[in-house]
Amino acid sequence: MTNNILDVLTYMFDYLFEAADESTGEIDDTALKAHLSNAGFEVMRINKALDWLENIASLQNGEAQAFSNTQGGLRIYTNAEKIRLDAKARGFLLFMENIGQLTAIQREIVIERVMSLDVNNLNLEDLKWVVMMVIGNSDDADEISPEWLESVVFLDDNHTVQ
């Protein structure tokens, strides 16, 4: 296991989806950290992953106002963003935005969160996990089914999102 932040996050989301099916209450932070630690993740990585995830909530709860004028505009990627997000990844973000499943603000949050990861370049499957985490942490996440969110992650190149 490479034990990077994205590995911790994807494992955590798998666990949370299972826990959501089994319980109606909130997930205890201590239990979650213990579960991740028992799975072999380093405490430092677990804390970084939780901080990374917490930043999504911060961005969605007000700090995203800096992105509020992005509706209907053309997104020009910086060279650093192009290195981290290849053409296929940028195409996926555009696709999700065009079908109305990702807002311009959420797209910017996805890009910001991708740029904060400790990876050199991101494959499409990893990007889909980040998109799922951003959508899942949005204000209207209650209206989104966990099955639909999972379908975003496991969507292959030959199918479209329902």
TrEMBL record:
InterPro entries: Smg
Membrane-traversing stretches: none
Family note: Belongs to the Smg family.
Protein name as catalogued: Protein Smg homolog
Species of origin: endosymbiont of Bathymodiolus septemdierum str. Myojin knoll
Lineage of the organism: Bacteria, Pseudomonadati, Pseudomonadota, Gammaproteobacteria, sulfur-oxidizing symbionts
Gene: smg
